[in-house]
Amino acid sequence: MATQEKVSEHNLGKIISHAKEYGFVFPSSEVYDGLAAVYDYGPYGVELKNNLKTLWWKSMTQLQDNVVGIDASIFMHPLTWKASGHVDSFNDPMVDNRDSKKRYRADQLLEAKAEEYAKAGQEEKGHALLVEMGRLLDAGDLNGVREQIISEGIVCPVSGTANWTEVRQFNLMFSTRVGSVAEDADTIYLRPETAQGIFVNFLNVQKTARMKIPFGIAQVGKAFRNEIVARQFIFRMREFEQMEMQYFVRPGEEMKWYEFWKETRLKWHQAVGLPAQKLKYHVHEKLAHYANAAVDIEFEFPFGFKEIEGIHSRTDFDLSQHQKLSKKKMQYFDNEINQNYVPYVVETSVGADRLFLAVLCNAYTEEVVGEGENQKERTYLKLHPAIAPVKAAIFPLVRKDGLPEKGMQIFNQLKQDFRVVYEERDAIGRRYTRQDLIGTPFCIAVDYQTLEDNTVTIRHRDSMEQERVSIEELRDKIAREVSFSRIYEQL
RNA sequence: GCGAAAGUAGCUCAGCUGGUAGAGCGCGACCUUGCCAAGGUCGAGGUCGCGGGUUCGAACCCCGUCUUUCGCUCCA
User: Fold this and answer.
1) Is nucleic acid strand B under 7 Å from A21's C-beta?
2) What is the pLDDT of residue A2?
């Protein structure tokens, strides 16, 4: 009888320590004291993350018969970001109130003021204020914006004072320069989202893969955002990985597909092992400029419910914008209705690192086992076998009498199909524990009986129970348990 | 970016009113043992986050800085 105690509140610290100590996630450049909000994946972390990415990729491109993949570059033509709106809306003028220590977007303060005027029947005054603000922002006159705030008598809602700092520009896109001669070099950006690589390739993909609407394009890749505050371990990083799928549909049918993906994706997270009660939808009331519907799938992290995936109905905003700026048609001819149109898009966008963190938080388990005198605490990662970094460990019970040789034989055979490890050092109990800590679902022990009848014991991580099976059965038995199809079955 | 707290061995931490570092666990080798973090022997590993200052002397006091966590703030 094991009383189980799941990690719930305020122990992100435990997860972070565990992740570091057992080779999942390290702070970047730790020998130089680290780099804020950047992390590296260690030996087991990379296996787990790769498994999650592969699972997602196959769920999209293999299980869905009308979704294909691409891998676009991180660098893109600068106009891409003009078209997407990032150049304009990823540049925010910020101002702090010195008394309340609160930070605001300067433009939003002025917009709120303009709204007040409008409500008071002074619409023209409000309009004039915004026009002037637009002029100042275009001219890069941040001081002018600050003077506007002060002369309008705008005060901080918290402190009630007008003790404002300078207005400063925050650019959320990282830029670099292409061209070896500095003066001739062009500024280009590191992509702040992977979606645009899909949009600009829409026609290439549609034509070469001969896709018919509705169809989707999937992509896994890095994106970069110069977050003002990056926090909460790998939850919000400046360099992160997205798993995105853009689904192109007939205009007017987007809500049907939006609902379809909303449900499909929630089910997927559950199938990976995230419990239903720790997942919920969060519908956006305030929509981004491109969307006509948006919902987040949130997971209950130790620091609360937070987004792991977004499902957005992006309308034809992106393709239309690219059509406008590139002057290339982004249209599809639909034989069924005999019409040319710019497709609407439903996006599913998972943060790979967030999913990783959710899976890790959920898997981290501390429980008390044994009774009375024998009671002790046990820590292990309850990962779905299909995504566990190591599938099985092979242990000879003792380090003599030919057991190591037999163990190596089994190891060499299994390693062709699975990520397995072989260990003969230390007491077997400790070896079990070490595997528990990294979430290995199966430990195979070679004992004296093995030499007689070619059977071994398989010890199951979660129940700690053992069963005896013949060596010939091993491969198939493990294969069944660790196969992605165990997850697909739940979809 | 603001506020608070913290930073000593791989991890968790101790280190008194300043007198140039310790423990447990872990790690490596060997011996004994053999089914859930076993015992023994030996060993590796720290310029106490970094840089200044005060002092005869700084892990400890002062200043600065970096990093992390938490709370704001921001978040397509």
Assistant:
1) yes
2) 33
CB A281 within 8 A of CB A270: no
A447 touches strand B (CB under 7 A): yes
| DSSP letter assigned to residue A164 | B
Whether the CB of A18 is less than 7 Å away from nucleic strand B comes out as no
Q: Minimum mean pLDDT among A18-32, A169-183, A209-223, A388-402: which range?
A: A169-183
- In this structure, of A58-62, A168-172, A330-334, the range with the lowest mean pLDDT score is A168-172
Distance (Å) of CA A52 to CA A187, A193, A227, A280, A388? 34, 19, 25, 20, 9
- pTM, rounded to two decimals: 0.87
Chain B: nucleotides below 7 Å from protein CB are 1-3, 7, 10-12, 26-29, 33-38, 49, 66-76
pLDDT digits (tens, 9 = 90+) for A444-468: 999 999 999 999 999 999 999 999 9
Among the CATH numbers 3.40.50.800, 3.30.365.10, 3.30.450.20, 3.40.1350.10, which is that of A383-488? 3.40.50.800
Q: What is the H or E stretch that residue A460 is in?
A: strand A455-460
This complex has an ipTM of: 0.84
**Which of the 73-102 residues on chain A come under 7 Å of nucleic strand B at their beta carbon?**
84-86, 88-90, 92, 94, 96, 101-102
A378 in contact with nucleic chain B (CB within 7 A): yes
Q: Where are the domains of chain A?
A: 3-74+188-361, 91-171, 383-488
Element (H, E) at A381: strand A376-381
